[in-house]
Amino acid sequence: MASSSLGSRLVACLLNVSEARRKDLVETVAKAAIYDPKAGVKREGTTVLNIFNDHDYNRSVITIVASIDSIREAVLSACERACGLIDMRAHTGVHPCMGAVDLIPIYPLGEEVGVEDCAQKARAVARGLTERVQGTSAFLFGWADSPLQRGLAQRRKEMGWFKKTLDLQEIRPDVGPQPQKQFGLTGVGASPYVMNCNVTIDTQDIAMGRGIATAIRESTPGGLPGVQVLALPHEGAVEIACNVESVKGSPPSHMAAGEPWPSFSISGQQYCHAPASLITVRVAELAGRQGVSTKQTALVGFTPHECRGLAEFALSKGTAEFWKEQHRIRM
Predict the structure, then answer these.
(1) Minimum mean pLDDT among 70-74, 163-167, 293-297: which range?
(2) What is the pTM for the complete model shown?
(3) Paired sense of beta strands 186-190 and 138-142, if any
């Protein structure tokens, strides 16, 4: 990711909140990140690039970009607003979730910021959330989970995120009190950029979807590096929902054919991630063997390069509510 004066020390937070069916509410949360409620003015150097809503999941992802020095206040302001508007006691949706603010991942967008810098901010966000909104609690993952640096999938499993029924009294958060039903539990962490890629297959057979998810998951022999997967019912079909984590170094030699793996550098370390085209092809192959076709592939947000480029463009124009403009831009 190339450096520029506009893009110096930029980081992204892909804020996951447990609401999508009330889009005006989600926009209110997004605006809290970019407008100072006390001063009533726009925050300098902060933009919301995208809001991704999913009705079936009842989950939205808000892409907030700011400098490393500004990200804490922007994210906390959005989280405060979300906790005041979303009540987990009334939440329904097919996507697993534990909190009104379910996930706060912070990613560096260039050489100027290290992952450890983001980890420090993530820990500060976790502390700030539990101090500002009484009754909230958090677990840490990735670089923010010092010294173990356990990944998100592992931490979610430890917290019971994948269970159909949760007993909040069994959970031991890293920050804050015992989780309360109103707010639930929030995951806060930092890592190299994680892309989200969802491939829909034309079936309602969730068992087939889970088999495909298992086959492409990183932990399975022959799986795709960095890919964490769920199979979920979605709009009358099955969605193979992938978190695509960045991995160190170059792509595996046996997977290097086809579309190049997007790559970038953080603090001199090279990273890359599996391209959406490869994930789509692999899912299509596995589904096709069972006579099922794919319907579509959707990216939630952007690739790391797109995120950086769009953020620089938005900030150069002073556009805070960029999600309203981005459909006009072609990167």
Answers:
(1) 163-167
(2) 0.94
(3) parallel
